[in-house]
Design goal:
about 70 residues; mainly alpha
Length: about 70
C-alpha cells in the first residue's frame, strides 16, 4: 500500500511539473512558482526539477506484481 501512495504522489508531482513548465514556456505564466526569485530560467528549472523528482518517485516506488497471484504465469 505504501508503494502505491508513493507512486500516486510521484505521478501527481510529475504532472504538475510538466504542466507548469509547458504553461511557463507557452503562456509565460509562472503559476505556483511565482514567488521563486530569479525569473524565467529559475522558474523553468524548478518545474523541470519537480517533474524529474516526481518521475523518480514514481519509478522507484512502482507497485510490483505478486507472482503467486499472477494469472499469466
Amino acid at each position: 500500500m505504501r508503494q502505491a501512495v508513493w507512486l500516486v504522489f510521484g505521478l501527481v508531482l510529475a504532472a504538475l511539473g510538466a504542466q507548469g513548465a509547458i504553461r511557463l514556456m507557452i503562456n509565460h505564466d509562472p503559476g505556483a512558482l511565482r514567488l521563486l526569485p530569479g525569473g524565467y530560467p529559475v522558474q523553468l528549472g524548478g518545474y523541470i526539477v519537480m517533474a524529474l523528482i516526481g518521475l523518480r518517485c514514481a519509478r522507484h516506488n512502482r507497485v510490483q506484481p505478486d507472482p503467486k497471484n499472477d494469472p499469466y504465469r
